Amino acid sequence: MRKNRSGSVGFAVAACLAVTATGCADWGVRSEQVQAARVAQPSRWGTSSVFSPANRSLGEGVRSHFGIRDEPQQPFPFSHQIHLAKELVCTDCHEGVERGPRAGLPSINTCMVCHSQIATDRPLIQQLTAMQEQGLDLAWQRVYNFTREAHVRFEHAPHIKAGTQCSTCHGNQAEQTVAVRAVDMDMAFCVNCHKQKQASNDCLTCHY
Amino acid sequence: MAHRWGMVVDLDACTGCEACVTACHAENNIPTAGATEAARGRAMHWLRVERYWEGDFPDVKVKFKPVMCQHCDNAPCEAVCPTYASHQTDEGLNAQVYNRCIGTRYCANACSYNVRFFNFFNPQWEKPLQLQLNPDVSVREVGVMEKCTFCVQRIKAGKTTAKADDRELKDGDIQPACAQSCPTGAIIFGDLNDHESRAARLTHSPRGTKLLEDEGTEPKVTYLQRQSWNEPDTQ
Amino acid sequence: MMPMDRRRFLKVTAITGTTAALAGCGNPENQIVRFIPEEELVPGIAVWKPSVCPLCAAGCGVIARVMDGDAEVFRKGKPGVTRMALVRKLEGDPAHPLSKGRLCVRGQAGVQVTYHPDRLVAPQRRTGDRGTGQFTEISWDEALSLLVERLDAAVAAGPAQVAFLSRPRPGRRHELVTEFLRRLGAPAPITFEIFDDAVLRRANELSFGRHQLPTLDLAHTRYLVSFGADLLGTWNSPLAHSVAYGAMRHRPGGVRAKFVQVEPRVSQTGASADEWLAVRPGTEGALALGLAHVILKAGLRPAAAAGRAGLLVDGWQSGLPAFTPEAAERETGVPAARIERLAREFATYGPAVAVIGGASLAQTNGLAQALAVNALNALVGSIGTEGGVSFMPQVALPVAQPRVLPEALASAAPQVLLLDDANPMFSAPPAWKVAEWLRQVPFIASFGSFIDETSVLADLILPDHSFLESWVDSAPESGAASFVATVAPPTMRPLYDTRALPDVLLDAGRRLKQPLTPAMPWQTFEEMLQTAATAEAAPNATAAARAAAPPAPTAWRAPVLDGSVGEYPFHFLPLASQALLDGSLAHLPWLQELPDPLTTAMWSTWVEINARTAEQLGIADGDIVEVTSTAGSLRAPVVISPGIGPDAVAMPVGQGHDTFTRYASGRGANPLAILAPVAEPETGQLAWAATRVKVAKVAEADGSLILFAGATRERPDHTKGRG
């Protein structure tokens, strides 16, 4: 800003501010204020009243950017090893995997299909039974996941159709109790297999 | 032969009802800007219906024109994106890869059609409006550009279903949300490489024009001009 | 908010069953309790379930895309999360004869009703003064007891002490309500919707024996003349007619149909016309008679061809001597030569069909206008023929005709008012004194899902499910050639502690001290719908109507408008907006953000003014004007439009809500609030387009007009202002 102009610029800025401050219409403003007031309140369920892809803190943002995720803590010491030894297969509980994008995490009802009869004397099963009676479900934590910002839309069904084994990406569950991240599922892992199988590596295959 | 997705908009059938606009919002998790941001020009209508007046009262005409990303073969947005977030796929779609986008907004600057929208803020849905969100489509965060994708999630779903059923894709299997909802059937989507498809045939209609053709963007959306009524010759 | 510097571990405790949460800085949302899902769901797979869209009266069938998702809910009073089937999107039902797989803009937004943040989630009882909006949540048991207590007292006091106010929505639900009232000894329900076409129904009853809205076979027509009917936008059954219009435009074989729209302001429908004619408001009927005069004079059709419909028009038998092209030009402003040409075209290029609706009928001469167009249709043989007008077969439901609001206000003084989603406080003219009438009703119970200007006056709230959570039905009165009845079960479970209105009435009916006489035969609405599915369709009895002698012919007269031309120079045209209709959809954010098709305005009210008029008044785009009638005044920004003449101003209806959720409250202005209480004399319907106003600039543009688009002209002419 040249010196001789600064005064008029300042005046212009002040004038603009004055006009906008006084010129705001009554309507529209009240709605925005009502809206802001509501957003500030917690929802009726005691949680945040808005849903947003925003990261809640800088720390969360940094972790999300670098793909750092804590080990999931499961609410229940479920053992894959035991169940697979009993000749259950993956799709008995993870039903959606052949039909659609997600494998799914079973609800307690799925457990109780068998455990209403089987092993009912064990304390863990008794805990499970009590939870079901109270209408509570197990809050399983996802083990394999991508950050929201990766915008990955993975679909299980085409991979199952192509003959991919669950263990290829999820590790050998027969060696796991509670599922852990046995496979480091970074993009290179996916791309390498796609190259081998001659599936498309165009970005839009997975990121849309 | 590889698919080449394109679209035809019949301006003779478009009544300006904007069913396509809201169908697109519902399908693609488009955030609602609200009055304040909309006043700043930040409403994100991936598909908009432009309205032009001709003449003056009472000899007026109105023309409606639904405009969405044209998925140009020679896209100006692709040339300027530094991170390959905007690029053309081998099926002719102009891809917008959100995780590559670093928000330079140069693509929106370059786009001749003004069909690219930037997330200046993190979108918010007041609960429980977020329960409506489509799980097959990303929720975009602040700093990324977004635009019409020709409902790429529906294209993928169509291909996956056809493969699962062990059959070829037929014309009409894949309908973007706008084409599906349009009451008059003014939006026609299809594989331009399938010469039997409705979209491919209509692309060659004598009524067909493209938007801003002289800019050399080679858009893949053909607009069929409105026709007029002429009194038939009577004997 | 989660503290980010420590990990939190919650182990599974013993049999108290608290859920374990996660470690670290996981999503705090997951820390709330998770409930067992109440349904079997395959993850990630969509199923499609049918439903019926209730957002306008058309009754189109839709399908809902239902997928699993985590929803926050209350179970036994405790908040938590559960996996449940959630509707993500609505589409037209491909099997439905009205929607044929397509869906209009409002239907697409319908999914936001269920997930609206301001939806009422549980019964409530008023705590503060009436109208202050202070309510407290109560249980259904308490709510039903309160309702039954009041109903008992009202019934004991006399037969007319219970009133029910709703929108006109024909179907089984309305039948149940009517039966409930009848068996209670109470009068038939009162229905009110500002843009309801009661005048047209009455005209069709007189002309053709059908008290019903018409269906136009656009797919096969060759010449369509619409006198102000926004049939592709907001009027009658817009989706079905748009689908048919699409068929008309895509018709193979190359014979192009001609579409002529006649109105004082270019509507969204008019924008698609091959020929658009400006006409003086309220003179559409004179134009129709002018066309008929030319057809008769040229011997293109005999007068007798119009049958009964012709006999109802004064002067028909003698060839309409008062409606020569020159006389019609003087009346309507349409040049005589054009009238001659159009008349010849209309009679030559058949099948031809004419239609009238909207503001054309909201005049003191509305009935005569409709009778004129009916006669014109009958003259060219378009009644019941391909490419013409038909009346959809209807079930002869044994229900009483609903009472109209002005009559009911005059005659009714109920002790209990049951309110189902009608909002006369917003959409009835203040001169009708709806507010005063409501104020003296001792007890008001509201079933709607939202607090609006009318339901805020309730003493008890018994929130209904949203339509996606309910058994729904519709019996459309127009939109297809064949009989259609649609019944659909809920597409998803209720999100909240709401109950279906018909089931609440049935429940209340069983608890009354003095039982319903006779008792209602169904336990639930679902049961009623199952039994109704086997009822056979019966055509409306037209034979008796036709046999009766026609009443004396009606003469077309110019409309009488409120306000003198000198003081109030402009004809005021409120119009149903594409996004918000009559304001009942103003709470849906997608519709608020939808750019208006002709002005691209969002989140706004505006006044459309002709460019010359604006220049004379010194008004530029966006300036704030005060619009004043004899009944009141309002302020709104201006949009200068090439689509309206110098003698009129138009305003969309929809904004101006005082109380209607966070998205609509305190936004814009309501043109219905300044309507003069002019009525069409025979039906008593409000002539909502019969008000004159004056317009004056009061302030510069202040940013309250929010437009999406830039240019208004494709090839901007820089000498003509904006563009």
Question: In brief, what are we looking at here?
Answer:
Chain A is an all-alpha fold and 208 residues long. Chain A has ten helices and one strand. Chain A is globular.
List its traits.
heterotrimer; A: 208 residues; mainly alpha; 45% helix; 1% strand; globular; C: 723 residues; alpha/beta; Phosphorylase Kinase, domain 1; Rossmann fold; 5 domains; eight-stranded mixed β-sheet; six-stranded mixed beta barrel; 28 strands; 19% strand; disordered N terminus
SS summary, helix count of chain B: 7
Separation, N- and C-terminal Cα atoms of chain A = 45 Å
Spatial arrangement of strands, main beta sheet of chain B? 9-1-11-10
Annotated CATH architecture of chain B: 2-Layer Sandwich
Q: What is the approximate shape of chain B? A: globular
- Based on secondary structure, the structural category of chain A is mainly alpha
Number of strands of chain B: 11
> Beta-strand level of the residues of chain B, as a percent range?
15-25%
Q: What is the CA-atom radius of gyration of chain B, in angstroms?
A: 19 Å
CATH class of chain B: Alpha Beta
Indicate the low-confidence ranges of chain B by residue numbers: none
Give the helix/strand class of chain B: alpha+beta
Number of strands of chain A: 1
Helical coverage of chain B, percent range: 10-25%
Beta-strand percent range of chain A: under 5%
Measured as a percent range, the helix fraction of chain A is 40-55%
How many domains is the backbone of chain B divided into?
A: 1
The oligomerization state is heterotrimer
Distinct helical segment count of chain A: 10
Rg of chain A, nearest Å: 27 Å
Characterization of this structure:
The complex is a heterotrimer of chains A (208), B (235) and C (723). Chain A has helices spanning 3-23, 29-40, 58-66, 80-85, 90-93, 108-115, 123-133, 156-161, 166-170, 187-197, and one strand at 50-51. Chain A has 208 residues and is mainly alpha-helical. Chain A has a domain at 80-105 and 140-205. The longest helix of chain A is centred in the N-terminal third of the chain and has 21 residues, at 3-23. Chain A is globular. Residues 1-31 of chain A have low confidence and may be disordered. Chain B has one domain: Alpha-Beta Plaits (2-Layer Sandwich), CATH 3.30.70. With 723 residues, chain C is α/β, with parallel strands linked by helices. Chain C folds into 5 domains: 1-29, no CATH class; 30-114, Phosphorylase Kinase, domain 1 (2-Layer Sandwich); 124-194 and 402-532, Rossmann fold (3-Layer(aba) Sandwich); 215-390, 3-Layer(aba) Sandwich (Dimethylsulfoxide Reductase, domain 2); 570-707, Barwin-like endoglucanases, CATH 2.40.40. In chain C, 24% of the residues lie in helices and 19% in strands. In chain C, strands 6-5-18-17-16-7-8-15 form an 8-stranded mixed beta sheet. Chain C has a 6-stranded mixed beta barrel with strand order 21-26-23-25-24-27. Chain C has a 4-stranded mixed beta sheet with strand order 1-4-3-2. The longest helix of chain C is centred in the N-terminal third of the chain and has 18 residues, at 140-157. Chain C is globular. The chains are: A mainly alpha (208), B alpha+beta (235), C alpha/beta (723). At the B-C interface, helix 1, helix 2, strand 2, strand 3 and helix 6 of B face strand 3, strand 4, helix 1, helix 6 and strand 12 of C. Strand 1 (50-51) of chain A pairs antiparallel with strand 7 (125-126) of chain B, so a sheet runs across the interface.
